[in-house]
Amino acid sequence: VDFSDGGVSGYGLDTALAVRLVRGVSPSGPRFTYSTQSYGSDATNNVVNDAWTGLQWRRCEEGRTWTGSTCSGTASTYTHEQALVHARDQSGWRLPNIKELNSLVDLSVASGARIDATAFPGAGSYLWASSPSLLALPGEIAWFVSFSVGVSARSFRNVTYAVRLVRASQ
What we know:
- By secondary structure, this protein is mostly beta strands.
- Helix content is 8%, strand content 22%.
- It has two helices and nine strands.
- It has a four-stranded antiparallel β-sheet with strand order 1-2-3-9, with no helix packed on it.
- A hairpin with a 4-residue loop joins strand 2 and strand 3 (55-58).
- The chain is globular and about 50 Å long.
């Protein structure tokens, strides 16, 4: 984590970096459970409950439909402003901030998307966060997460990426 701007990147195992230690109680039990929320033509168990964060996630990116076993269809893509507007129009749901979206990155995944494939099957690689960049070109750049490599980065807000909605546990 780059504490000057909040970026999360990967480095080789031989790269010397500073270390910040933490202690506390590690989560126990399953991280993800599933529940159902009426949403379009989704099947049951279309919501992922995250025990680590207390958040609920849409199982599929916007534009895709939960069939009961997988996400089908093609994810819709939005500019950052379109993503914010779309999320505001979804009753009770919102666009996650960069910290929330980063919490889904799973670097233990050996290949494919760096996200739990059972909870989020067929997950896309680039997803917008609601967080704007405050250091680089304020108003023109916002944060996204690349689940293909497990990093967060900044992009111009006129680029189109997919969206996964979140809300506080109900």
